[in-house]
Amino acid sequence: MTHVLTGGAPLAQQRRLVTEVPGPRSLALLERRIAAVASGVGGTLPVFVERAGGGVVVDVDGNSFIDLGSGIAVVSVGNSAPLVVEAVQEQVAAFTHTCFMVTPYEGYVAVCEELARVTPGDHAKKSALFNSGAEAVENAVKVARHATGRQAVVVFDHAYHGRTNLTMALTAKNMPYKDGFGPFAPEIYRVPMSYPYRDEPGMTGAQAAARALGLVESQVGARNVAAVLIEPIQGEGGFVVPAPGFLTAVAEWCRASGALFVADEIQSGFCRTGDWFACDAEGVVPDLVTTAKGIAGGLPLSAVTGRAELMDAVHVGGLGGTFGGNPLACAAALASIQTMRALDLAGAARSIGATMLPRLHALQQRTGVIGDVRGRGAMIAVELVRPGTKDPDPQLTGRIAQECHAQGVIVLTAGTYGNVLRFLPPLVIGQELLAEALDVVDAAVAEHAPAA
Ligand code: PLZ
Fold first, then answer.
1. Atom in ligand 1 nearest the alpha carbon of residue 135
2. What number of other Cβ atoms are within 10 A of residue 1's Cβ?
């Protein structure tokens, strides 16, 4: 059995259940959680974590789960990755916070330099750092409005951009993200996404782009559009991969219209899809990119990176925040990016996809409930439907996810209809562990769904 070093101690890379799930210690913590934590904060698994690293999460009862979630696409370099631990320990002992706007430090600048290197395009770029993905998206909209002098923001069906007031308006799905939380910010316009599985068969990326942009032209007016904001592969919306040519056509329309093409790469970025960024696969170069999640190995950090002249359009003092680009988070980001290069984690993501896709396609052949298998690299999903139809089956999706959890594999669900099972393993997961997790998924589907 292989081990990885997390925080200096070896952690066995194995699936191992030693109690019921949840075990007694998790149950005791669950009771405390219910009494003290607001119930509006959701929960996927009822187990509490003690350690995690490589491809496993170990709970307080000693159960070891295979991690196909990465804390929602965050710990791409693995939990407590050695370089991250070392860098953060060094930084935490030196200074924890000064506020970059008060007395700056090198780490913030170095992260912005790295962002200029790794994001798509070789034009002059600048960045600003924040704490959460939603905050980065909000700031991208601020920059876009300032730089263009326009107000309208175009977003897509199934989009997810966050839970703050502006980003709730940008997010498509009502329940659980928006219900009862209005009023929402104005000047947001939603148009159809390219969704090959659910679009008319044969619809090309260019046709899907024309469908969306035709609506923008007739209902908003191209000259009013500050930004078109898009996840190049949708995350919470169900790993919807637009048809080839869609992103290129949208980016071209933006260029011709004077609107900014803003890529939300918060979930799809930092090697997740087998490239540094999902836009790279089609050679699309966004004007602004938002990043977070995988950027800093689990520490909270986010960024807006964009064309230098656009980023500099904002007046001095117009962007900021107390904690944005916190020194610990910056140290972690530099160590994470170094790890991605040293271990070729983009290549690792491609290998993960190469293992998963054929197995999931084979599973699709054996059952009638998998309507679609899709994704790229280590961002892979299956969409579950009622046999012989495209009717979403969220109940079945929930049952399969729960069965995987009970068998020691962490999987997540997604999708506007709640019927997508998504897989986001840490990019450092071992192939053996990944294969075992797929065995568990196979068995869970077999148990809860009729054979084809
Ligand atoms: N943009 C593309 O995926 C976060 C949300 C989890 P924050 N997705 C996980 C939940 O239920 O709250 C996300 C994303 C994309 C923006 C965000 C927002 O990032 O760091 O959660 O604010």
1. 22
2. 9
Nearest alpha carbon, ligand 1 atom 21: 133
H/E stretch holding 82: helix 82-94
Residues 75 and 84: beta-carbon distance below 8 Å? no
**Per the structure block, which two tokens stand in for 204?**
């090309």
Residue 134 near ligand 1, beta carbon < 6 Å: yes
Check: CB of residue 55 under 8 Å from CB of residue 425: yes
Ligand 1: atom nearest CA of 137 is: 16
Report the relative pairing of strands 288-291 and 302-307 from DSSP bridges. Answer: antiparallel
CA distance 425 to 356: 11
| Helix (H), strand (E) at residue 350 | helix 345-366
Find the 142 Cα to ligand 1 centroid distance in Å: 18
- Contact residues for 319 (Cβ-Cβ < 8 A; gap 6+): 128, 139, 142, 143
Nearest protein CA to atom 7 of ligand 1, as residue: 133
Say if ligand 1 is within 6 A of residue 268 CB: no
The tens place of each residue's pLDDT in the chain, 452 residues long, gives 899 887 678 999 999 999 999 999 999 999 999 999 999 999 999 999 999 999 999 999 999 999 999 999 999 999 999 999 999 999 999 999 999 999 999 999 999 999 999 999 999 999 999 999 999 999 999 999 999 999 999 999 999 999 999 999 999 999 999 999 999 999 999 999 999 999 999 999 999 999 999 999 999 999 999 999 999 999 999 999 999 999 999 999 999 999 999 999 999 999 999 999 999 999 999 999 999 999 999 999 999 999 999 999 999 999 999 999 999 999 999 999 999 999 999 999 999 999 999 999 999 999 999 999 999 999 999 999 999 999 999 999 999 999 999 999 999 999 999 999 999 999 999 999 999 999 999 999 999 987 77
The class that CATH gives domain 84-343 is alpha beta
Domain boundaries, the chain: 3-80+345-448, 84-343
For atom 20 of ligand 1, the residue with the nearest CA is 133
| Residue 102, H or E segment | none
pTM score above 0.85: yes
Mutate to test the pocket of ligand 1, among 179, 293, 412 (most ligand atoms within 8 A of CB): 293
Secondary structure of 109-120 in HEC code, one letter for each residue: HHHHHHHHHHCC
Domain 3-80+345-448: what homologous superfamily? Aspartate Aminotransferase, domain 1 (3.90.1150.10)
Q: Is the CB of 132 under 6 A from ligand 1?
A: yes
